[in-house]
Design goal:
Length: about 290
């Protein structure tokens, strides 16, 4: 349910500020006048009026907690605006812009060949609130190996692997940090705040940085073309990434990670030159050419 049509009589700039309030409540669980002042170049009085107007339009959406001087989401919250998943995920990953609504339609001269598979906005909102407030969640999760199972997860980041969105989370069922496909999460509910041992700072694979050295596949007849594609220097490209993201990057870039460069160079034009790194990784399941 959305009340988007109710905002049409207000000026565009004010609609943007109302959308921002709605966004913060929905995806972070709270908002304050300071947040508005930080986001928009308007005076304190205008921010006060915007919050008052939002309370008038949707009084059941928020409550003021005097001890924090912040407005918090209520269980009866219904979005005032229509937050499109593809747009908001882009904004969340790149940082908020001037407001949160799409101002103009996508251009006809710059087109994504493949649209990302993304979850619905309510799933994203619940995940973002849990991440921001360091809470656990209960879910029903569908996996290819186990089918449908009940899980308690402690999410700490959303990750775009180039094809779909995953959430990195501590899995209480297995006692370790894992990645979960967001579209396979059903009946997502927030639980209590989780201990530090289940939070991002305890995720060693997320905290550890590893260095990858990529080169054109040795079986290519003209490796210079690949060197140009990837902006290589002296025929190689060095990247430093989080260990938890290594598999996604090497799979997306189609990097041959086999010890003898045996994969087809036309489907895997890059090779992992520092192959000894593989032995130190906690999860090699996604690495092309490495047996699970």
């Amino acid at each position: 349910m959305s009340r988007l049509a109710d905002l049409s009589r207000y000026p565009h700039a004010q609609r943007e500020r109302l959308a921002f309030i709605d966004f913060c409540l929905y995806y972070f669980g709270e908002v304050s006048k300071t947040d508005l002042l930080r986001q928009f170049s308007v005076g304190s009085a205008s921010c006060t009026r915007d919050l008052a107007l939002y309370r008038e339009l949707a009084p059941e959406n928020l409550e003021l907690r005097h001890q924090t001087k912040r407005y918090h989401i209520t269980p009866s919250f219904v979005p005032l605006c229509n937050h499109e998943p593809e747009i908001l995920l882009s904004r969340l990953s790149q940082g908020m812009g001037e407001g949160v609504n799409q101002i103009s339609p996508p251009g006809e001269h710059c087109v994504d060949a493949i649209r990302l598979i993304h979850p619905d906005s309510n799933t994203i909102a619940t995940l973002m609130r849990a991440i921001t407030q360091r809470r656990a969640i209960s879910v029903r999760y569908h996996s290819l190996s186990s089918g449908e199972t009940e899980r308690e997860l402690v999410p700490h980041v959303l990750v775009n692997n180039g094809h779909r969105w995953h959430v990195r989370a501590y899995d209480r069922r297995h006692g370790e940090f894992r990645d979960f496909v967001t579209t396979r999460l059903l009946q997502v509910h927030e639980l209590a705040q989780a201990p530090n041992t289940e939070q991002r700072e305890a995720d060693s694979a997320w905290q550890r940085q590893v260095t990858l050295t990529l080169v054109p596949h040795p079986a290519l007849a003209h490796p210079e073309a690949i060197a140009l594609d990837y902006g290589m220097t002296d025929g190689q490209l060095t990247l430093t990434v989080r260990e938890a993201l290594v598999g996604y990057l090497l799979q997306q870039w189609r990097v041959d990670c086999s010890p003898d460069a045996r994969l087809d160079p036309h489907s895997h034009p890059l090779r992992l030159a520092n192959h000894d790194l593989v032995a130190s990784l906690t999860n090699c399941r996604l690495l092309p050419g490495v047996a699970p």
